[in-house]
Each structure stands twice: as structure tokens, then as C-alpha cells.
Amino acid sequence: MTEITALKRGLDILDMFSAEQRVVGISEIATRLAIHKSSASRLAATLASSGYLVAASAGNYALGPRLAALGSLAAARQDLTAVVTPFLKDLVEVTGETGHLAVLDGTIAKTVQVVDGWHTVRMHSWVGKLSPAHCSSMGKALLAGLSDAELDELYPDEALPVRTDHTITTREQLRHELTKLRRTGSCLDYEELEVGLRCVAAPVFSPDGTVDASISISGPAQRLTRDRMQFLARLVRWHAWRASLARGVLAVPPGWPAPLAEEPPAPDWAVRSEARHS
């Protein structure tokens, strides 16, 4: 039996389980896969040794805890997008800028949701986009949830890759930026990732108090002036906190600023015309 064949048969065994059939026996596995009972027994034992099955009784198996753990991971990611997206849409609606939801994957900020802005001139993005975390606002918002030791593990070298003349170039500069971020609750990107592109981000907290996601808005530097970005930072913080509350967060984790007491006003320069809105 080749490794690919064994893998396929192992997956076929898992597919035999359903809400109506919680336990599957060796004899049934052998019959449905058209293999000898000894082969079926070895396949089931291998799955059990890895936690995908557990012995229910002699010759019978039920689904194991490893599958439950993987299912929880998949559900958590799905729930993250489902819960946060409405608040990201609200943020985009009030600002007109393109919105992102991102998670951290090593030193990369991975976009898992995009809501297009409604300005005629706007950033165009896509789900699955990968950005270096140290030079993107959404990435730095994610990195701010790490300890110093975790940050050093991700960035063992002092020098950091450079994307533009505005990119943070050292780990010490990054550490300083993350300290500031934890003090203010938001992060600004002044063309660090791409010339002409500016972004504002804030962390989204999980119920266990960690930062496992961030939301951001991005737009052209001509429109997102420094004063406007400071204004928008409060709006991004507000919507990120609303998303955190919707995920079951009860209080801001230690080391982060208290949430804003009330919703900030909408920017007076982001007004959607009737023609554009229709």
C-alpha cells in the first residue's frame, strides 16, 4: 500500500462517520474499502495513535480529540471573519477607505477579509494578500500583542527588510513603535509598505485577551494627510473594540488603553455623493 493510497483510505474511514453513525467497526471498514480486515485494523490503529480515532470497544472506533481540536481551529477562523466583517463594513462606510481584516502568520500579516472603499480613487486589495508585518499598520497592530521574547524570536536579526524610504529598518525601532502602539491603541503607516499608500490599524482582541487579528483602512497619501490619519485612528479603534466585544471580550487586556467612551464623529471630508451612493 503506497503512502498516498493509505492516506486516501484513512480519509475515507473518517468520512464513514456521521451524526447517525458515531461508531464504525473494523469489519465495516474492511467491507466498504474492499480491503482485508488486518489492513483495516492497521489503518484504524494508525489513526487512533495520532488522536483522530479512539477505541469505543473491541474492534470499534469513534472520532478522536484531534479532529475536535482541528474543527475548533477552523470554526474559530470562520467565526473571526463572520463576527468582525460587519464592523469592518461600518468602518468603510463611514470613511470610504478600503478595509482589511488580518491575522499574523510568522512575520507576515495575512489579509483574510477585504471590504472595498467607495472613493473613486482608492486602494485595491484582495483576500490572501501577504504583507511584511513590521512595515504595515495591520501587521504592527498584530505584533504589538507579542511579548519581547516572542518578538525577538520572530526577528532574530537587528536589521529589518526595507520596502520604502519610510520603512522601519531596525528591531529597536520596531520595538519603540509597538510600545507607542500599546499606549495609543492604534497604528499609523506613513507609506512604510508602499509609496503613496497610507494605512491606519487597531488590534482586535480575542476572549482570552490576546491579539489574534487587526482591522485597518488604507488609502492614497494625497487624501490621508497626517491630521486626517490621527482623526481616523479613533474611528478604527472604536470599530475594532466593537468587534472585540462582539467576540465575547469583556474588558481591555492589561497594558492597553481604555476603550473610547463614545463613537467618534464621521470625517467631514468623506461624504458620499448621491450619484456615487446609488
Automatic annotation (TrEMBL):
Q: Which UniProt key words apply to this protein?
A: DNA-binding, Transcription, Transcription regulation
Q: Kindly give the InterPro entries that the UniProt entry links to this protein.
A: GAF-like_dom_sf, HTH_MetabolicPath_Reg, Tscrpt_reg_IclR_C, Tscrpt_reg_IclR_N, WH-like_DNA-bd_sf, WH_DNA-bd_sf
Q: Where is the signal peptide?
A: none
- One BP annotation, GO: negative regulation of DNA-templated transcription
Cell inner membrane keyword on record: no
Which residue range or ranges hold the HTH iclR-type domain? 4-65
Protein name, entry field = IclR family transcriptional regulator
- Source organism, top-level taxon: Bacteria
Q: Return one GO MF term.
A: DNA binding
